[in-house]
Amino acid sequence: MKIKYIFPLLLVLFAFACKNELTIFEQINEETKLEDAIITGVVNSVVKFNSKLYASDGNLYTKNENDVRGWSKIGSPSGTIIKLAADSTNLYVLNEDKVLYTSTNADSWTQVDTTSMGTIQTIFWDGASAPTTYVKTTSGSFYKLAGSTTPTAASDIISAVLLKTDKGTYTAKDSTVTGSDNLGSVPDLGTVWSLTHSQVDNAIYAGTSKGLKKLPLDEAGKLSGKSQDPPGNWGATIKAYKAFAVLATGTNTSDAALYTSTIEEGSAYAKINGLWGYYYSRRDTWNRE
Question: Over the stretch 215-246, which tens digit does the pLDDT of each residue have?
Fold first, then answer.
C-alpha cells in the first residue's frame, strides 16, 4: 500500500472507533431516557447503614433506603474515600492514605488506631442482616472491626469478597463464587469484586469484570452452577460494562432495589461510569443514580 493512502485510512479507522464508543452511549440513551447522574466516576462502595444507604466516588453520598434516587453529598473525613463498610452500629470509611475512620451517625468521625496491623489494603462487610466489618492488610491478614476500638484478628476469614446469608456463607476466589456446606459454586465469572443477596429474587448478585451477574439460589440456598442476566433492561443497556460495587435492598417488589456501579476506562465512558439503580415495581428500568 502506498504511503499516501495510509494516513487517510488511519483517520477513517480512528473516526470509526470513536463513533463506536459514542454509539454505545447513544444506544443506552435510546433504550431509557437517562437521568442526570448525581454519583459519577468510579463508585467504589455502596452499603446500607441503619435506614440509609451510603455510596462513595471519592466523596460520600447518602439517601433514605426506600427512596427512588434522592442522593445527596455529605461531609466526610479528609482525603479521597476509597472504600466504605458498615455494621449495625458503625459506618467506616477508608481514605486513599489508608487511614480508617468510623462514625455512629455519619456526622462526626473518629480515627481507628490500626498501627499494630500494618498497612491496610481494604475494608469490607459480609452483607448479613446483622453485618460484621473487616480489614484486610497488604500482608494478607484479616481483622474484625468494632467501632473505634483496636481491630482484633479474624483468622477464620479467607476472602475479602464475602457474603453471609441465613442459608450459608459465599466467597469469591479465582473467578468462582462458592457456597459453604455443599451449597455449590458458579465458575467463570471473571474477577469478582463484590457480592450481595437479593431476598426478592432469591439470588446472589456478583459485581464482576464481566458485568453484573445474577446467581440464582434454590430454597436451601444452593447455587445453580450458572449465572443469569439481572432483571429489567440490563441486557439492552449496560450489560457489557464491568460492575464493581453492588447492593440489593428490600424484601418484596414494592420496596426492593438493586444498585451497581460501572467502571470502564477511557474518556468516552465518562457519561456511563457511576452508580445505576433498578427499583422493580417502582421503576422497572435501570437508570443513573
Answer: 999 999 999 999 999 999 998 778 889 999 99
CA angle 272, 277, 280 (to 5 degrees): 140
pLDDT digits 0-9 by tens, 112-145: 999 999 999 999 999 999 999 999 999 999 999 9
Separation CA 256–CA 242 (nearest Å): 23
For residue 161, what are the CA distances in angstroms to 124, 175, 191, 207?
A: 8, 11, 11, 10
Beta-sheet pairing, 211-216 with 243-249: unpaired
Residues 6+ apart with CB under 8 A from 117: 135, 137, 141, 143, 151
Instruction: Give the residue from 126, 193, 112 showing the smallest Cα distance to 156.
Output: 126
Q: What does the mean pLDDT of the chain come to?
A: 89
Q: Which amino acid is at 99?
A: V
- Tell me the pTM: 0.89
Q: Which residues touch 276 (CB under 8 Å, ≥6 apart)?
A: 238, 259, 260, 261, 262, 286, 287, 288, 289
